[in-house]
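Batch manifest, entry 17 of 40.
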Amino acid sequence: MPKLDSGNGTSAPRRLPYTIDAVAWTPKKELQLPQWTEVGRRLGTMGRCSQWWLGDWVRYGVSKWGEKYKAAARITGYDGHSLRNMAYVASRFDLSRRRDNLSFSHHAEVSALPPEEQDVWLELASRRRLSVGDLRVELRAAGRRNDCDRAPNGRVPVEDEGIAAVCPECACTFTVSLARAVAG
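Output type: structure tokens
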């Protein structure tokens, strides 16, 4: 994965030809095509990495201090359900198995599969340069993923009152309310 350093071989920060804040990227001056291209690479890298970073960050907090999804949601601005999903996907891939040439979403598509199958599908996606949608189509065609109707009727997109579940027939993931899970 490319490092997000200053790019000038020193540890001193350099003045960037743009500003960036929570809602905008704005050039400070005219950029040449190579500068614009490099900025795009950096922004793309940050975007592809952020879900991994947040998933690992949440997992650390949960392992250190217990259930902290509400606090993590307040801190990050993400909803608890999204943070749970990020943490789930991050938990399914050791650092050595994460592929920096594929998106977090590629990994999420195969996260419910056994590790050996995950690796096969990720290798296929990498080799064929499959989009996430194309990977989903391939998984369905192979019978390995199906957003099925067999998931319990109690599946709900909830923040802190649900648990992640995996359909035993098709490996699709969904959230089940705790009340339904406890009731059986």
